[in-house]
Amino acid sequence: MQKTVLFVGAGRHQRRAIRRAKELGLRVAAVDGTPGAPGLAEADVPRVVDFSDVEGVLAAVADVELDGVMTISADRAVPVVAAVAEARGLPGIGVETAHRMTHKVAMRRALADAGVPQPRFAAVRSLSERRRAADEVGFPAVLKPADSGGQRGVFRVDSVDDIEAHLHEVLAASPTGEAILEEFVDGTEMNGIVVMRRGEAIPLTLSDRRRPPGVGFGVGWMHVYPPTIDPDQLVEAERVAGHTARALGLETGIAFPQLIAARDGRVVVVECAARVPGGEMARLVWHAVGVDIVEVQLRMALGEDLPDELVLPKRSQPLAVRFFTASPGPLPTGRVVRTPSLEKVEAFPGVVEAGSYIEAGEVIRPVRVDNDRRGYVIAVAPTNLEALERAEAAATLVDVEVEPA
Predict the structure, then answer these.
(1) Of 247, 403, 209, 232, whose CA–CA distance to 323 is shortest?
(2) How many CA atoms are closer than 13 Å to the CA of 329, on its beta-carbon side?
(3) Domains along the chain?
(4) What is the SS3 string spanning the chain?
(5) Are 278 and 294 in contact (CB under 8 A)?
(6) What is the pTM assigned to this prediction?
(7) Distance of CA 337 to CAs 42, 192, 356, 358, 362, Å?
(8) Of 171, 311, 315, whose CA–CA distance to 255 is shortest?
(9) Along the chain (405 residues), what's the average pLDDT of each consecutive run of 10 residues?
(10) What is the pLDDT of residue 150?
(11) Which of 17, 166, 171, 232 could pair with 155 as two cysteines, CB 3.0-4.6 Å apart?
(12) Burial group, residue 57, by CB count within 10 angstroms (0-12, 13-18, 19+)
């Protein structure tokens, strides 16, 4: 009998995963609050409902026989997936674990209890708490919502006045009206992908998460695999990545820890998600080590076994991902007159994949949040730095025409 999996969220990243699910012979139900969400058109059972509303989602699929539930990329869908799984008796990570892995204050406290190395931090809920938080954390620091994503409302702050200037915007980006102030740790930021299999941590990739200067400093605009860090720090980073997932209660799932290899030799945790991430990380893992983490997540959602041949790395291919962005990237700013051609990008030496999110009529702006990334190119080479050179050169070849916005 054909199994049915429910996707919570049906955006661009989910659409690709929905197609993969159908390639594997699964029937797909999907919920999203946007009628034109691209994944809904791919689903066998599309339902238009705000996917942050657990009761609404449960009601929308009450007549659907489900074998599993999952999400891709959308952090705010993770607690909903966990709640739906519990309500329908399906495999899941549990609502408590989902809360710890999506609420940064709860996450930080759990990591502190487990002795996981991390930056100093303090919760901030109002302007009256800004001085107390600053005294606990110090400067420079990062101010961000406790429960948001996509680098929305993230600011580097260097004084109490900076906190006061940005706190209203940060709190507005948090569904629960909470913010967190964290020590700014200088070093090499990394994305990790770890498969948790019944409590066993299987590290797949650690890659440099390179960020632009300026207001978009939180956006990952390049990924480099393997990371450009000291071998001893790499060993420690793999240990910390697994320790983090366990400390947050993730027994079986995809862990997405973000780490910093600090210049003083430490490795600290920035945060950790329990989902297949966006930002083309699934494609990075596939090209780098030959593991399809979307298929892994699908099988986890269905409660199926995870054999070694599905989850263990098969190769180690140096590569780089470069996102298409405007200033300080190569894309022009303005309103798009026509969608770009990627023919020159795809023909560049070493390029194995490229994709564009650019649509006619949209406005390309300087990079500030994740949604300002308007496409990507992945290049491979004998070394990671050579791959980065190829990816950066290929990204300059995007042919897009704009007019003043």
Answers:
(1) 209
(2) 34
(3) 4-90 (3.40.50.20), 120-183 (3.30.1490.20), 187-403 (3.30.470.20)
(4) CCCEEEEECCCHHHHHHHHHHHHCCCEEEEEECCCCCHHHHHCCEEEECCCCCHHHHHHHCCCCCCCEEECECCHHHHHHHHHHHHHHCCCCCCHHHHHHCCCHHHHHHHHHHHCCCCCCEEEECCHHHHHHHHHHHCCCEEEEECCCCCCCCCEEECCHHHHHHHHHHHHHCCCCCCEEEEECCCEEEEEEEEEEECCEEEEEEEEEEECCCHHHCCCCCEEEECCCCCHHHHHHHHHHHHHHHHHCCCCCEEEEEEEEEECCCCEEEEEEECCECCCCHHHHHHHHHCCCHHHHHHHHHCCCCCCHHHHCCCCCCCEEEEECCCCCCCCCCEEEEEEEECHHHHHCCCEEEEEECCCCCCEECCCCCHHHCCEEEEEECCCHHHHHHHHHHHHCCCEEEEECC
(5) no
(6) 0.95
(7) 28, 37, 15, 10, 9
(8) 311
(9) 96 94 98 96 98 96 98 94 98 98 97 98 95 97 89 91 96 94 96 98 98 87 97 97 98 98 95 95 98 98 98 98 95 94 97 96 94 96 98 96 93
(10) 67
(11) 166
(12) buried
Q: Which residue has the tokens 């496409």?
A: 375
Q: Looking at this protein, which amino acid is placed at residue 61?
A: V
- The tokens of 254 are what? 């995809």
pLDDT per residue over 282-310, tens digit each?
Answer: 999 999 999 999 999 999 999 999 999 99
Residue 310: the pLDDT is 98
**Two tokens at 305?**
């076994």
Tokens representing 351 are 């390029």
Q: Are the C-beta atoms of 307 and 322 separated by less than 8 Å?
A: no
Using only C-alpha atoms, the chain has a radius of gyration, in whole angstroms, of: 21
**How is residue 105 written in tokens?**
């204050």
Residue 31: Cβ within 10 Å count: 30
Q: What is the pLDDT of residues 335-372, one digit of tens each?
A: 999 989 999 999 999 999 999 999 999 999 999 988 99
CB 290 within 8 A of CB 315: yes
Interacting residues of 231 by C-beta distance below 8 A, sequence separation 6+: none
Residue with tokens 């480099």: 224
